[in-house]
Hints:
The chain is of the alpha+beta class. About 20% of the residues lie in helices and about 35% in strands.
Amino acid sequence: xxxxxxxxxxxxxxxxxxxxxxxxxxxxxxxxxxxxxxxxxxxxxxxxxxxxxxxxxxxxxxxxxxxxxxxxxxxxxxxxxxxxxxxxxxxxxxxxxxxxxxxxxxxxxxxxxxxxxxxxxxxxxxxxxxxxxxxxxxxxxxxxxxxxxxxxxxxxxxxxxxxxxxxxxxxxxxxx
Length: 176
């Protein structure tokens, strides 16, 4: 399945299968397995494999997905939103760092990964944005890991739209 390269995105493919993608949002560079053949024809990026072995089939899909994410990242960018649920849970921005108050005896300070920006929306929403899908997902997962959603009360940091199934708890004990 070919990847369509949008207007304003420039690609260069090296002999060692190193692909550099430059667009309006920035530049990404990645080296791929030398078995995969990557060609650019008429603004269509095509990945092909040498054989139908299991390893080549899996590398083919991986290479195609990574290239599609690189093209989309430099053209549009990626973002993940998180929300904090809990009484007194809040986040503040101090420079490029975020300071979380999530029920611990101390505030938790988080620095962004390279190529990722953190934005607060109000006191309990965080937006993670960047051009590298892998880095954006990693940063969002690190923030969520500070205080994952509790299974009994639902308090914690979660992705926007994430469904948290609550456990019923102990309930009443029967007398007798």
